Amino acid sequence: MTGTNGNGGKRGFAAMDPARQREIASQGGRAAHRSGNAHQFTSEEAREAGRKGGQASHNGRSGKAS
């Protein structure tokens, strides 16, 4: 559904300029680190996340034309 305001029907955060979105998101990340609530991956966690991502990517390919 597209709106008449020229932003393709997007509202709120989605309607913002991408640069402004990044700015707001980075502020949240910095605040989380300052308060000690930000998760910091260990090398083992990062390895496991990469393995799962590779599996999900690989499993999504059936090799068959649909």
Automatic annotation (TrEMBL):
Compositionally biased residues, Gly residues: 1-11
Ranges where the record places region Disordered: 1-66
Skewed-composition ranges (Polar residues): 56-66
InterPro entries with a match to the protein in the record: Stress-induced_KGG_rpt
Listed Pfam families: KGG (PF10685)
Coiled-coil features, chain-numbered ranges: none
Bias (Basic and acidic residues): 42-51
Protein name as catalogued: General stress protein
Native organism taxonomy: Bacteria, Thermotogati, Deinococcota, Deinococci, Deinococcales
